[in-house]
Design brief:
Number of helices: 12
Structural class: alpha+beta
Strand order of the largest sheet: 2-1-5-4-3
Strand content: 15-25%
CATH superfamily of one domain: Histidine kinase-like ATPase, C-terminal domain
Helix content: 40-55%
Order of helices and strands: HHHEEEEEHHEEEEHHEHHEEHEEHHEE
Radius of gyration: 61 Å
Largest sheet: 5 strands, antiparallel
Number of strands: 16
């Protein structure tokens, strides 16, 4: 027993097991969150690297495109300058002719340098405040201040050069479309990217690692994952929306709470089932222990009762026979002596009844079953107490709803009925009532004996079937105990109920067999 007490109950062990599994589930859940964050950060790093590659590729493309555009422009202007030089060598251009040719060719202006600082231009004064250098090779020069491209072409058969001026709008538009700012703006409009910008490195940026680090920060009303990457002497800063991470974490939390709730309900439910089973098992064990203890007690009581009957009845019989002889032959006894002999005889009879009750309690009850009618047995037993009830002014009522035969021992069952009737009558010495009810409920037949005059408390009512418990001055306390054993031998049960103050009901329930 001590070893069993030291062991944890099964339901407690089950709860501990579920608690350990819950801790494992929580650990796995936080590992999943960490993994989701790590995947998100890796995703941000990959995206930033891709953004940097796109920007770098676009920057290179912009440079190449500008070079190609300038080469094409230089070739186009070279052909135009060569044609102008050819026409001018045949017949020199006038200012009006150069103006018309420049307009037709989409040029801002043309200037032709000759020998001794002679030049002609059209439209007039288009190159005011500009300086020119005639070189031995063709030269394309961008004058950003005047928003012009100037192309200088050395003349073939004459000294000087031909200078053509063209607006840089188309080239500037191409550079703007392929430029870094436009690429950054386009990339910033991609999904999940909040912003992309280039920053000049600060003094402490030289110690940063080449691999970008991701930092979660609040930008306005939104959380942004920001990372930095060295890029061409500057720092590329990319901010990405954390909605994907928040959605993943929210989904994990939702799944965790659903799983946790289901897991908790399952754990509590299984623990409750185990608790009920364990309590039922313990109840059965205690019931078996009580039954074994009772059987041992009954066996000991039977042996003791046999010894008591032998040791007490013989002297009692001898005393009784002696007292009877005194009553028969003691003519010279005075009245007070005869009264004393009568009291002694009554005491011997009471002692004999106590010994008989003890023997009946200790003796195993083995019903000799016969087919009888319970209502007939009740009426027969009640007829023995009708005169006594009239004397005590006890009103008797009956409710007979079952008149079929049952399988029972008429002598043992008659003993139970007689005991119940006697107790009900003795509880009402000043008068009262007695109600008998015989009926059927499902697969059981019952006899209910209801009477007034009860003075038992609730605690005493619960002890009414205990051996030797009685509230009578001359009672043995074995009558109801023996009755209960008889009913149990018939596979039935005996119940007691306090209907209200002063009213007690004792009910006998007997099972109906297949033959009844």
């Amino acid at each position: 027993m001590e070893e069993n007490k030291r062991k944890l109950p099964l339901w407690v062990s089950n709860l501990l097991l579920f608690a350990l599994l819950s801790f494992a589930a929580v650990g796995y859940f936080f590992w999943q969150i960490h993994r989701a964050e790590q995947e998100f950060f890796d995703h941000v790093r990959v995206n930033v690297k891709q953004v940097a590659d796109v920007i770098e590729l676009s920057a290179r493309g912009a440079v190449v495109s500008q070079q190609v555009a300038e080469e094409l422009l230089e070739a186009l202007l070279g052909n135009t300058a060569r044609f102008v030089d050819y026409l001018d060598s045949i017949e020199p251009f006038s200012s009006e002719e150069l103006s018309a040719f420049a307009k037709e060719s989409g040029l801002v202006g043309i200037r032709i340098f000759g020998d001794e600082d002679r030049y002609a231009e059209g439209p007039p004064r288009w190159s005011q405040d500009m300086t020119f250098n005639c070189t031995a090779k063709a030269n394309l020069e961008h004058r950003a201040k005047q928003s012009l491209y100037l192309f200088s072409w050395p003349r073939k058969d004459a000294p000087g050069c031909v200078v053509l001026g063209i607006e840089d709008k188309k080239i500037a538009s191409l550079e703007e479309q392929l430029g870094l700012e436009n690429v950054i703006k386009t990339v910033s409009e991609l999904p999940r990217i909040r912003y992309v910008k280039l920053e000049h490195p600060s003094a402490g940026d030289g110690n940063r690692e080449t691999r970008p680090a991701v930092a979660i920060m609040q930008v306005g009303d939104a959380q942004v994952a920001e990372t930095r990457l060295p890029f061409g002497g500057k720092t590329l800063v990319v901010g990405m929306d954390t909605g994907y991470l928040a959605s993943a974490v929210h989904r994990l939390w939702r799944d965790f709470f659903v799983f946790g709730a289901a897991f908790a309900v399952l754990g509590i439910f299984l623990s409750f089932i185990l608790y009920r089973q364990q309590m039922s098992h313990l109840s059965q064990v205690k019931s078996f222990e009580r039954q074994i203890s009772k059987e041992r007690e009954d066996a000991s009581l039977g042996r003791a009762a046999a010894g008591i009957a032998h040791e007490i009845r013989n002297p009692l019989n001898a005393l009784g026979m002696g007292l009877q002889r005194l009553q028969l032959e003691g003519d010279e006894l005075r009245d007070e002596h005869r009264r004393l002999v009568g009291l002694m005889m009554d005491a011997i009879h009471r002692a004999n009844r106590s010994v008989s009750g003890l023997l009946n309690y200790a003796r195993p009850q083995m019903p000799n079953r016969k087919f009888i009618r319970l209502d007939t047995l009740v009426k027969k037993t009640l007829s023995l107490y009708l005169h006594r009830c009239e004397e005590l002014h006890i009103k008797i009522t009956q409710s007979i709803d079952f008149k079929e035969t049952i399988s029972a021992d008429p002598e043992l069952l008659g003993q139970v009925i007689e005991n119940l009737l006697r107790n009900a009558i003795e509880a009402q010495p000043e008068g009262g009532f007695l109600h008998l009810n015989v009926g059927r409920k499902e697969r059981e037949v019952y006899l209910k004996v209801e009477n007034g005059g009860s003075t038992l408390s609730a605690e005493e009512t619960d002890r009414i079937f205990e051996p030797y418990f009685t509230t009578k001055a001359e009672g043995t306390g074995l009558g109801l105990t023996i009755s209960q054993r008889i009913i149990q031998a018939h596979e039935g049960r005996l119940e007691v109920h306090r209907l209200e103050a002063g009213i007690l009901e004792i009910a006998v329930y007997l099972p109906l067999t297949e033959d009844t």
